[in-house]
Write a structure and sequence with these properties.
single chain, about 200 residues, alpha/beta, six-stranded parallel beta sheet, 5 helices, about 25% helix, globular, disordered C terminus
Protein backbone atom coordinates (compact mmCIF):
# COMPACT_ATOMS: atom_id res chain seq x y z
CA UNK A 1 0.00 0.00 0.00
CA UNK A 2 1.30 3.46 -0.91
CA UNK A 3 2.30 5.79 1.91
CA UNK A 4 0.85 9.28 1.59
CA UNK A 5 2.96 12.24 2.65
CA UNK A 6 0.73 15.03 3.99
CA UNK A 7 1.79 18.66 4.16
CA UNK A 8 -0.57 20.93 6.10
CA UNK A 9 -0.64 24.61 6.96
CA UNK A 10 -3.03 26.89 8.88
CA UNK A 11 -4.90 29.71 7.17
CA UNK A 12 -2.73 32.27 8.98
CA UNK A 13 0.57 32.08 10.85
CA UNK A 14 0.85 31.51 14.58
CA UNK A 15 2.34 34.99 14.77
CA UNK A 16 -0.77 36.48 13.18
CA UNK A 17 -3.00 34.65 15.64
CA UNK A 18 -0.89 35.86 18.54
CA UNK A 19 -1.12 39.44 17.30
CA UNK A 20 -4.91 39.09 17.00
CA UNK A 21 -5.10 37.81 20.57
CA UNK A 22 -3.22 40.81 21.96
CA UNK A 23 -5.56 43.26 20.23
CA UNK A 24 -8.71 41.36 21.16
CA UNK A 25 -7.70 40.94 24.80
CA UNK A 26 -7.28 44.71 25.09
CA UNK A 27 -10.94 45.17 24.14
CA UNK A 28 -12.18 43.51 27.35
CA UNK A 29 -14.88 41.47 25.61
CA UNK A 30 -16.93 39.07 27.77
CA UNK A 31 -16.43 35.32 27.84
CA UNK A 32 -19.19 33.15 26.39
CA UNK A 33 -20.84 31.14 29.19
CA UNK A 34 -23.29 28.38 28.41
CA UNK A 35 -25.27 25.65 30.15
CA UNK A 36 -27.31 22.64 29.13
CA UNK A 37 -27.55 21.56 25.51
CA UNK A 38 -25.64 23.00 22.55
CA UNK A 39 -26.12 22.29 18.86
CA UNK A 40 -23.17 22.95 16.56
CA UNK A 41 -24.35 23.34 12.96
CA UNK A 42 -21.97 22.95 10.04
CA UNK A 43 -22.88 23.41 6.42
CA UNK A 44 -23.10 19.76 5.37
CA UNK A 45 -26.03 18.67 3.19
CA UNK A 46 -27.62 16.68 6.03
CA UNK A 47 -28.83 19.84 7.82
CA UNK A 48 -31.71 20.00 5.34
CA UNK A 49 -33.20 17.00 7.17
CA UNK A 50 -33.20 18.71 10.58
CA UNK A 51 -34.83 22.12 10.04
CA UNK A 52 -37.80 21.54 12.34
CA UNK A 53 -35.64 19.94 15.03
CA UNK A 54 -33.30 22.93 15.02
CA UNK A 55 -36.11 25.47 15.00
CA UNK A 56 -37.40 23.84 18.19
CA UNK A 57 -34.00 23.13 19.73
CA UNK A 58 -34.06 23.22 23.53
CA UNK A 59 -30.73 24.91 24.08
CA UNK A 60 -28.17 27.14 22.42
CA UNK A 61 -27.00 26.85 18.80
CA UNK A 62 -23.64 27.74 17.27
CA UNK A 63 -23.71 28.13 13.48
CA UNK A 64 -20.27 27.56 11.97
CA UNK A 65 -19.11 30.29 9.60
CA UNK A 66 -21.44 30.84 6.62
CA UNK A 67 -24.02 28.43 8.03
CA UNK A 68 -25.39 31.37 10.03
CA UNK A 69 -27.17 32.67 6.93
CA UNK A 70 -28.79 29.28 6.30
CA UNK A 71 -30.01 29.30 9.91
CA UNK A 72 -31.49 32.78 9.64
CA UNK A 73 -33.13 31.93 6.32
CA UNK A 74 -34.81 28.94 7.99
CA UNK A 75 -35.94 30.67 11.19
CA UNK A 76 -33.30 29.05 13.41
CA UNK A 77 -32.05 31.18 16.30
CA UNK A 78 -28.27 30.75 16.38
CA UNK A 79 -25.03 32.38 17.39
CA UNK A 80 -22.51 32.94 14.62
CA UNK A 81 -19.48 30.90 15.66
CA UNK A 82 -15.96 30.77 14.26
CA UNK A 83 -12.32 30.23 15.11
CA UNK A 84 -11.23 31.45 11.68
CA UNK A 85 -8.38 33.94 11.76
CA UNK A 86 -8.51 34.69 8.04
CA UNK A 87 -8.65 38.40 7.14
CA UNK A 88 -11.91 40.01 6.06
CA UNK A 89 -11.08 39.65 2.36
CA UNK A 90 -11.13 35.83 2.68
CA UNK A 91 -14.52 35.32 4.34
CA UNK A 92 -16.67 34.60 1.31
CA UNK A 93 -19.97 34.91 3.19
CA UNK A 94 -22.23 37.73 4.39
CA UNK A 95 -22.34 38.66 8.08
CA UNK A 96 -24.52 41.76 7.83
CA UNK A 97 -27.50 40.11 9.57
CA UNK A 98 -25.56 38.64 12.52
CA UNK A 99 -26.81 39.86 15.91
CA UNK A 100 -24.72 37.69 18.24
CA UNK A 101 -21.34 36.00 17.81
CA UNK A 102 -19.08 33.54 19.62
CA UNK A 103 -15.48 34.01 18.51
CA UNK A 104 -12.14 32.48 19.39
CA UNK A 105 -9.96 34.98 21.28
CA UNK A 106 -7.34 34.95 18.52
CA UNK A 107 -9.64 34.99 15.49
CA UNK A 108 -9.61 37.72 12.85
CA UNK A 109 -9.40 41.16 14.44
CA UNK A 110 -11.12 42.40 11.28
CA UNK A 111 -14.14 40.31 12.21
CA UNK A 112 -14.24 41.72 15.73
CA UNK A 113 -14.06 45.26 14.40
CA UNK A 114 -16.75 44.49 11.86
CA UNK A 115 -19.15 43.29 14.55
CA UNK A 116 -18.33 46.25 16.74
CA UNK A 117 -19.34 48.44 13.82
CA UNK A 118 -22.66 46.66 13.30
CA UNK A 119 -23.50 46.51 17.01
CA UNK A 120 -23.60 42.70 17.14
CA UNK A 121 -23.01 41.05 20.51
CA UNK A 122 -19.49 39.60 20.75
CA UNK A 123 -18.49 36.94 23.25
CA UNK A 124 -15.23 34.97 23.35
CA UNK A 125 -14.44 31.29 23.75
CA UNK A 126 -11.48 29.92 25.65
CA UNK A 127 -8.16 29.77 23.78
CA UNK A 128 -8.07 26.99 21.18
CA UNK A 129 -6.98 23.56 22.33
CA UNK A 130 -8.01 21.60 19.24
CA UNK A 131 -8.66 22.04 15.55
CA UNK A 132 -7.94 22.49 12.72
CA UNK A 133 -11.44 23.73 11.86
CA UNK A 134 -14.07 25.63 13.83
CA UNK A 135 -16.25 22.50 13.94
CA UNK A 136 -13.33 20.39 15.20
CA UNK A 137 -12.54 22.91 17.92
CA UNK A 138 -16.15 23.15 19.12
CA UNK A 139 -15.97 20.09 21.39
CA UNK A 140 -13.39 21.51 23.79
CA UNK A 141 -14.70 25.08 23.55
CA UNK A 142 -18.28 24.03 24.25
CA UNK A 143 -17.36 21.99 27.31
CA UNK A 144 -15.09 24.75 28.60
CA UNK A 145 -17.93 27.26 28.19
CA UNK A 146 -20.13 25.15 30.46
CA UNK A 147 -22.36 23.17 28.09
CA UNK A 148 -23.18 19.67 29.33
CA UNK A 149 -24.20 18.15 25.97
CA UNK A 150 -23.05 18.92 22.42
CA UNK A 151 -24.86 17.63 19.31
CA UNK A 152 -23.44 18.11 15.82
CA UNK A 153 -25.50 18.73 12.71
CA UNK A 154 -24.12 19.07 9.18
CA UNK A 155 -20.54 18.30 10.20
CA UNK A 156 -20.24 15.19 8.07
CA UNK A 157 -16.95 14.50 6.37
CA UNK A 158 -18.33 12.42 3.49
CA UNK A 159 -20.19 14.10 0.64
CA UNK A 160 -22.16 13.40 -2.47
CA UNK A 161 -20.23 14.36 -5.63
CA UNK A 162 -22.45 17.38 -6.29
CA UNK A 163 -21.82 19.54 -3.23
CA UNK A 164 -20.16 19.76 0.17
CA UNK A 165 -22.70 22.26 1.57
CA UNK A 166 -26.46 22.48 1.91
CA UNK A 167 -26.52 26.10 0.78
CA UNK A 168 -23.82 26.32 -1.89
CA UNK A 169 -22.19 24.04 -4.40
CA UNK A 170 -18.42 23.89 -4.32
CA UNK A 171 -16.13 22.25 -6.81
CA UNK A 172 -13.74 19.70 -5.34
CA UNK A 173 -10.48 19.35 -7.19
CA UNK A 174 -9.25 16.20 -5.48
CA UNK A 175 -11.55 13.61 -3.98
CA UNK A 176 -10.38 11.09 -1.41
CA UNK A 177 -12.11 7.74 -1.16
CA UNK A 178 -11.90 6.19 2.30
CA UNK A 179 -12.83 2.52 2.65
CA UNK A 180 -14.53 1.56 5.90
CA UNK A 181 -16.02 -1.91 6.33
CA UNK A 182 -16.06 -2.45 2.59
CA UNK A 183 -17.92 0.81 1.89
CA UNK A 184 -16.34 3.80 0.17
CA UNK A 185 -16.86 7.30 1.56
CA UNK A 186 -15.94 10.28 -0.58
CA UNK A 187 -14.36 13.29 1.10
CA UNK A 188 -11.79 16.02 0.41
CA UNK A 189 -8.33 16.81 1.71
CA UNK A 190 -8.81 20.59 1.95
CA UNK A 191 -7.93 20.87 5.62
CA UNK A 192 -5.10 18.34 5.48
CA UNK A 193 -3.08 19.02 2.35
CA UNK A 194 -2.68 22.02 0.09
CA UNK A 195 -0.14 21.32 -2.62
CA UNK A 196 0.28 22.84 -6.10
CA UNK A 197 -1.55 20.97 -8.86
CA UNK A 198 1.73 19.85 -10.45
CA UNK A 199 3.31 18.61 -7.19
CA UNK A 200 4.10 14.88 -7.60
CA UNK A 201 3.11 14.23 -3.96
CA UNK A 202 -0.49 15.34 -4.61
CA UNK A 203 -3.11 12.64 -4.16
CA UNK A 204 -4.77 11.55 -7.41
Amino acid sequence: MAKIHWVSAPTVSEGARAANAVEIQALGLPKHVGAGRLAVIGGGPSIKDHVDELRNWDGAIWAVNGTINWCMDHGIDAWFYTCDASPITKWGYDLSRVKKSVLAPDCSIDMVRYFQGTGAKIELTAPLESGPTSANAADFLAIEAGYSQVTYFGCEGSFEPSSTHAFASSEIEDWLAVEVGGDLYRTKAEFISRLPADDPRRVR
